[in-house]
Specification:
With 94 residues, this protein is mostly helical. Helices cover 83% and strands 0% of the residues.
Length: 94
């Protein structure tokens, strides 16, 4: 198994820079995956966010099953996306 020092040396960058770039790349990939999942919900229900989906369910415009469970999942994804974006901003500030 390669160590971070060995990889950093081979790439001729400081180990801390290797870690920062790796974290940035990982977070960006995770953000894209979450955004794709959110886009699937947006396409499926024709609404921009989970709040609007809940409103439409409550108004009877969208059947509650399975939309209600998916609204909960969508909210979780929105929260997770926010956390990932905050972490990415912190990594970028280092």
């Amino acid at each position: 198994m390669c160590s971070k020092s060995k990889i950093a040396q081979a790439l001729q960058i400081p180990p801390d820079e290797l870690i920062r770039r790796s974290l940035k790349s990982f977070l960006e990939r995770e953000i894209r995956a979450v955004q794709m999942d959110i886009a699937d919900f947006q396409d499926r229900y024709g609404v921009p966010n989970s709040t609007e989906l809940r409103f439409r369910i409550e108004q009877g415009e969208i059947y509650s099953h399975p939309a209600w469970e998916e609204a909960i999942e969508w909210e979780r994804l929105e929260d997770h996306l926010g956390r990932l974006q905050r972490l990415l901003a912190e990594v970028g500030d280092v």
